[in-house]
Amino acid sequence: MKRLASLIALLACAGAHAGEVQVAVAANFAGPMEKLAAEFQRDTGHKAIVATGATGKFYAQIRNGAPFEVLLAADDETPARLEKEGQMVAGSRFTYAVGRLVLWSAKDAYVDASGNVLKTGGFRHLSIANPKTAPYGAAAVATLERLGLRDRLQPRIVQGENIAQAWQFASTGNAELGFVAQSQVWRDGKFTAGSGWIVPASMHDPIRQDAALLNKGAGNPAARALLQYLRSDKAKALIRSFGYEV
User: Fold this and answer.
1) Between helices 221-230 and 2-12, what is the axis angle to 10°?
2) Domains of the chain, first to last
3) For residues 56, 57, 61 and 64, what is the CA-based torsion angle, rounded to 10 degrees?
4) 3-state secondary structure of 6
5) Per-residue pLDDT tens for 167-189?
6) pLDDT at 9 over 70
7) pTM metric for this prediction
């Protein structure tokens, strides 16, 4: 609490110079970011202008001159690549959250505690995010491979552009099952609706989600303030409430 109070006091001094920051946010982090942005503005006066989407697409947009100043990626590889390519402020990236993959259904009691429904269920469709551009999609494919089910279930897979669309397919019932981010269906220690299986972290590569200060935000105090705010105890508590590790 003392650290947060000090942060708020420090940033309050710049209240008269409060500004805006353009933030590219991975789709899985849309819910937490909506709340964080509101708290960030309340505590600092700065406003975060948020765009959500697939990390892979943000990478291409940033390379092509998109006006983003901060990136909150769904992985750690994309920020590392951007740093190597000189697209971000060197040394600014850090892990703001570690995500968890969930097999989820909008139906109550449909998904068992071990995910055996993938082997025994009579479902027609399984939604996942595009594994080429969305880290949660890549984690879903890795999980199916570990279970020896990828080839068998391939005809049933419906692919969303990003994890938000994969969740939408499952939440509307267009897919009986979906591999989604835990943050999309979890709050304060329980599923917000339906039923799910939290995939063991050992079944796929860790989903370390890194933040980065992009070159276009190097001179923007609001951009630096947001990255500092993400490291505050208040922000970490909110992030944890959505099922992430920090």
Assistant:
1) 170
2) 2-98+206-241 (3.40.190.10), 101-198 (3.40.190.10)
3) 70
4) helix
5) 999 999 999 999 999 999 999 89
6) no
7) 0.83
Q: Provide the token pair at 184.
A: 């999309």
Amino acid at 8: I
Whether 39 contacts 226, CB under 8 Å: no
Rounded to 5°, angle at Cα 123 from 171 and 141: 75
Residue 145 pLDDT exceeds 80: yes
Q: What is the DSSP string of 23-62?
A: EEEEGGGHHHHHHHHHHHHHHHS-EEEEEEE-HHHHHHHH
Concatenated DSSP letters for 169-230?
A: HHHTTSSSEEEEEHHHHEETTEESSSEEEE--GGGS--EEEEEEEBGGGTT-HHHHHHHHHH
Q: Which strand (E) or helix (H) includes residue 134?
A: none
Which of 1, 17, 5, 96 has its CA nearest to residue 43?
A: 5
Element (H, E) at 114: none
Which one-letter DSSP state was computed for residue 122? -
How many whole angstroms separate alpha carbon 132 and alpha carbon 174?
22
* Cα–chain center distance at 72: 8
Give the pair of three-digit tokens for residue 213: 């200060």
Residues facing residue 107 across a β-bridge: none
Residue 75 zone, left/alpha/beta (φ > 0; ψ -120 to 50; rest)? beta
Contact present, 146 and 204 (Cβ < 8 Å): yes
At position 19, the amino acid (one-letter code) is G
Tell me how far the alpha carbon of residue 176 is from its chain's centroid: 22
